[in-house]
Target: R3H domain-containing protein
Amino acid sequence: MSAATVSVPQAQDQTPTGPSRRPPRHRRRPNRNAGETQQEPQVDGAIQTQTRGGRRGGGRPQPARDTALAMIPPSVTPLDQTQGGANNAGRQGARSSHNPPGQPAHHHRMVQGGRQFGGQLTVENENSNQNNSAAAGSVSHLHANAPEFRPGHPHVQPAPGARNVRPPQQRRRRPSKSSAPDISTRTHEDIDNGHYECAICTEEVRRNSRVWSCRTCWTIFHLSCIKKWSTNEGSAAARQDVQGDELPPARQWRCPGCNLPKDSLPKFFTCWCEKEIDPKPLPGLPPFSCGQTCSRPRDLPKKCPHPCPSLCHSGPCPPCSQMGPTQSCFCGKKSITRRCVDTDYENGWSCGEPCGEIMPCGDHICTRPCHEGLCGACEIRVPARCYCGQVEKAILCCDRGDEEESSHSYLAEDGVKVVEKWTALFECGNFCGREFDCGIHHCSKPCHQQDIDITHCPRSPDVVSHCPCGKTRLDEISDRTRRTCEDPIPNCSKPCGKLLLCGHECLQLCHQGECPPCLQNISIACRCGRTTSLTICHQGTEEPPQCLRVCRVTLNCGRHECGERCCLGERKAIERQTSKRKLRPLHSAPRQPDDSFEAEHICTRTCGRLLKCGNPDHRCQELCHKGPCGTCREAIFDEISCHCGRTVLQPPLPCGTKPPPCRFQCDRSKSCGHSQVPHNCHLDDESCPKCPFLTTKPCLCGKNTLKNQPCWLNEVRCGEVCGRRLKCGAHKCQRQCHRPSQCEEPCQQPCGKELITCGHACLAPCHSPYSCKEDRPCQHKIFITCECQRIKQEAKCNASRNSEGNIKKVLKCDDECARLERNRKLALALNIDPATHKDDHIPYSSETLTMYQENVPWASAQEKEFRIFAANPAEKRLRFKPMPPHQRGFLHALAEDFGFDSESMDPEPHRHVAVFKTPRFVMAPMKTLAECTRIRQSQRASTATTGSLATDTQRRMKASNLVGDPYNGYLLTNPRFGLTLEELRSALKDAIDPKSGITLDISFLPSEEVALNPVVNTPGLLDRELEALLTSHKPVISKSLSAHSLGTLQLCRVDGSLNILRRETDSGAGTGWSQVAAKGAAPMRFRRPGPVEGKNAFTVLSLSKNKKRPEVKRKESVVDDWETAELIEEEKERKGSEGSLEGEGNNDKDKPGSDGENESREETADYKGSVAITDQDRTVSFSDPGGRAMGTWAEMDDEDE
Model:
C-alpha cells in the first residue's frame, strides 16, 4: 500500500455542502469498543485535525466547523452526494453507526490505508472505498484508546484487551510574583496568581475575598482581619497629652502596613474607588473592581482638580496627564500654561524679575524678585537724628517715626547766638537733660521734641503755689516766701490722700516723692477661699496666704488624691462634683464621659504600673491615667520556642509574646514511671494529664489496701470510720479514713450521757471525765399529749436541775377527743374491731367509675374542678368548655353523684355543660374516684377469690413459685396513737443486742405507719442474707413492740424514697399482670360488704351481716405428679372465676341508672365503648369504638400515684 501524503488545502476547496454545514451541538463521547489492529499509514504533513461526531446513540451527525475543515488533508475527498443523500443528514444518519455492516445507509469515511475518521472525513475515491470495505465493516467507529496520530510515524493500534493509559499531564507552572513598575498592576497580578498574602493572617488574598486597603501604604488585608486588628488594644496609637480644659483626641489605630494612625475604623468591603459595596468578582476586570471610572481626587504627589479617568483600580492613581489652567506670575507681568502635574495650584509661580512695586514708605521701589503677597517693610537705611538731638545715625526706613521739627539755640565760642534746626525721625531712649532757664535744674523727661526757647524751671516760686499733696497753699503753711527754685517746698500736716495701686488712699502725711506701700490691715481670703485672715494690704498682693486645710479631691487618674494644702481648685472640684450629681432632664444632651478636671487636679505623676508583658523592668511611662495601660512598645530580638523546642517564633517579636502552641507530642517523663499520656506539647505552667493507670495503694488509715486506684491519687480513703478511742476516753473518732494524727482532738462530740433530770442524752460538748452540770434547759424535742393522746404538740424538754420543764405537762382534750372516745365505746359495745373495720362504701355510680377508667388523667382534672366548685360557697354555677359527647356524659354522671344539677347548652360544635348547685347538694364525696376505683378493684378480686376451689396445699405450692425481691426492712402497722420517737427507740434498744451489729433507722410514713430500715455494719452483705438476718431478729423485736403495745411488726421491701414495695402480709402477687406471673397465687380472704342504703357521702359504723367463720385447717395432701394436679386446679379456678363474674355482671345490670336528665343518658350512650374483663389475669381493659385500649385495672395504681 502506498503511503498517503497529507497536506493543508485551502478552506474553500474542502468546504462541504448540504447538511454538513450545521455546526456540532454536543460533544460525542468516545466509543470504548475495541476494533481490529491495523497498520497506520505513513503520512507526510504537518497538521492533522480530528473532529468529533454527535451524541452517542442518536442525534444528527455533528460535522466540524469551517475552520476545522480547512485542515482536511488532500487524500480525503467528500462523499458523493448522490450516495449519501440528504436523507442521511437527519436523525437516521446519526443512527447509521449502529447498523450492521453492508447496509447502504452506513458509510465509512476512510483515508488510504484503511484509517477511519468517523463521519467527518471522506474517502479518496470509490475504488479505495470498495477495496477497504472489509476493514471498514470490522471497525464501525473510532476507538477510545486510539494512539495519537503523528505524521510520518506508523500507526500501531493497541490490542483489544489493552488498557487505555492516559499520558501524564504536565504540571502547569505557577507564575512568579509580578515585577510590574506600578503598585496597581503588581497588586492585580499577584492577587490573580495567588501570590498576595494578608499581612495579618498570612493567608492568600483571592478574588472572592473580602478585603480592605490602606489609603496610605496601599496594603491589602482581609476585612475580618483588619477589623479585629483595629479594635485590638495593641493597635491603638499613642495619644497626645491634653492641656487645660481641652477634650482628649479620639482613639486612633495604627495600620499594620505603614504604622501610621487612622481615625475611622474599617466597616465595609468596597471596590477600589469606594462606589460599590460588596463588589462581585467579574471576569475581565481587575480584582475587587466595580468596572466604573475611578474618579478619585488625586492627592499625590499633589492635589489635582482632574479626577482619575482610569478604570477602578488599586493603589494610588497615576499622575495626571492633562494640561493645567493658565497662571500669571505673582507680579502679573507674565503668564504661562503647564501640565497639570507641573502646575502649582496652591503656591503659584514667580517669573524671577524685580518686583518694581512702590514700598509702603512711598519713597522707595521693591527690588526683590517676583514674589507672593505684599512687598513688606522697607529695609533701606536712611540718615536720621533723634528728637532731642543727642543721637544722629542711619536707621532702617521702616523704623522711622513721625517727622518732628526740632530746634534749639546756643552761644557759640565767639558769643554769637546760633539756632540749630533739624527734622527728627526717631526717639533715642535717653533723658532729655536740657537745662532750664534757672541754669540749675535739668529736664528729666525722655527724648522729646525740642523748642528754640529754653523751658522755664518747674520748681520756680512762680510755678509752685501749693504743698506736694496739693491741699494747702504755701502762704498758709509758712510766712516765709520762696525766692528761688532751690528753696525747699514745705509740707502741710494733712494726709497725702493719693490713690494707691491697691485702691486705698495714702495715709502718710504730705510728702514729696513716691508714696510708700499701703500698710492698712485688711481681711484677705486664703488661696482656696475657705478661711480669711488679717494682714497688711501689700502682702496680699504679693502672695495670698495659705490655710492648713488638706484637699481630698481625687485626681483625674482616679488613683491618687490631691493632698495639697489650701488647694486653689478645691472649690471648683466641689462645684463639678455637685453638678455631676444633679438630676438632668430626659431631653437634655448626654453628659461628656470625661469631665474637664481643674488644672490643679491633673495628676502629673508617672503611671509606673507593670505592663501586660510581665517584664518587671517595663513599666508604663505615661502620665497617671484611668483604665488599663497600653501595650509594651519594646521588642524582643530572641527566638521564642515551645518546651520541646520544635516550634519556634523568629524575632523581632513584641515584648510579652508567649511561647507558641506546639503540635508535637509532649516529651516530659512522669515521676511515677508510667508511660506518658499522648498530648500536645505545652508550657511549664500547665501540668501534664494525670496518670490514668490503676494501681494498688494503702488507705490513709492503714487498715485496708485498695485496688484499682488511679496512679495520680495520693490520698486514698477506704471510707471506714476511724473508731480510735479519743483522749477523753468516752468517745471514738467518727471521722472517715484519715491519717493517724488527724483524729478529732480535742473531742467536740456531744457528751451523750443520760441526764438525771429527764433521761435524755446530754447535748453539751464532751466534758469527760467531769459529770454533766444540767444547769441549762434540755433542748431535746418531746411531744406533749392530752390524756387520750390524740392531741400532741412538739416542744422542747427544758428540764434542768432547777426545773422539771415540759415533761409532766398534759394538754387538755377537746370535742374531737370526746367524739373518738364515744365512737370507741360504741364500737366496743357493738363488738366492732376498729383495726379490721374498713369503709368500703362507693359514693359513685358504676357508670361514673367506668367512664373515669377510660381516661384517668382527664377525668381526674374534671373531678378537681368539681371539688373546687363545691368548696367555694360563693360560686353557684360552673361552666365547662365545649367537649365531645362522651366527655359531657361523664360530667353529667359526676354532677349527679355530687348532688349538682347539670345541663348541656348550645348546639354543636359549641355544646358545653353547665353545673348548678341545688338544695340537695350537701358536700363533696369524701372519697375520690381513684380511691373508689381501687375499692371496686379489691372487691372484684375478693369476689373472684371467694369462688376459687383451690386448696391450701395448691395455694402453698403456687406461692412457692413466686419470685420476689427479698425483704430489706420492717414495717410497723397500726401504731399506737401518739407514738413518739423516744418510745420506739427505747423499745428497740431493749430488743436488739448492741453486739449484733445491726441498728434500725426509724421513719414515720404519711400513711401513719412506721418504717424501720436496718443499718448493718457488715459491708458487702447480700439481699438474701439481709432478709435472713431480719427474719431471725423479727420475733424478739415483735415481742418487745407487742409488750409496749406499740403496733404490729412485719417484714417489708422499701426503696430509697421510703415507698413500700412489698409487705409480708401481701397475698401472692396481687392482681393484674402480677397475678398472671404468680399463676393464681393464694388469694386474700374477703368479706363481702352489705348494702348501704341511701346515697350519702358519709359512712357509719355497722355490724357485718356475715360472721367470721373459723378457719378449718385442711390436711395437706401430697400428689405424685404435682404439675398435672396444678393444671387441674387452675382449670377449676378459671371456671369458678367466670361464674362469679357472670353473677356480678347480672347484679350490675339490675342496678338503676342515673337520675340525671335524659340528655346526659343519651350522650353517655353515644359513646359506645367496650369493657373486657378477663378472669385469668384479672385484667379489666376498656376500649373506645375505634378499638384502642384505654387502660387496665393493673395500671390504676400507677396512674393514681
Q: What stands out?
A: The longest helix spans residues 1122-1150. The longest strand covers residues 417-426. The radius of gyration is 62 Å. Residues 431 and 444 are 6 Å apart (CA to CA).
